[in-house]
Amino acid sequence: MKIVGISGSNVGTKTRTAMDYVQKELIESSPEVDFKLIDLADYSLQFSDGRNYLEYGGDTGYVTKQLMEADAIIIGTPIFQASIPATLKNIFDLLPQNAFRDKVVSMIVTSGSPRHYLIAEQQLKPILAYMKAQIVQTYVFIEEKDFYRKEIVNEDIIFRIQRLVEDTVVLTDTYKKLREAKEEEYGF
């Protein structure tokens, strides 16, 4: 099973900190999983211009191919100006409409304010549904107060990250088995 994590901004540290907790949890709880963390701050991505994702080279080609080859994706995103960052939206624009078909996608959201809790529901989930993702319905919302010196200090948040990782792995495995059983029915 291949899972790709995205730290969906090219600025700030809180989302990357949360995604580091995801990576640590996956390594400890599911060492058989091939996990790759992509921090968009580390890549120079082109803006989408409508080409097929396979036509992009460099960092853009690498990131899009990693996402297309993944069985599951864990998206970490901050909330800026009551919206997802442009860098993350650009990733969605680079990919085909059905890019997340047969993929499980889960989310971690970091925000400076509890008022942004529903941004994932109102903006991110509709995009993922449009792209045919199997969405893990519960997501982890982390506020400014839950961080201290690049560490998560709220034990409940750490527990919810552990649960999100577990749900992502279990759902990915379950959907894979269901698809395999359905394909066997065809007999060819």
TrEMBL record:
Residues 1-143 form the NADPH-dependent FMN reductase-like domain. It holds the Pfam family FMN_red. Keywords: Flavoprotein, FMN, Oxidoreductase. GO terms for molecular function: oxidoreductase activity. InterPro entries: Flavoprotein-like_sf, FMN_Rdtase-like_dom, NAD(P)H-dep_FMN_reductase. This is FMN reductase.
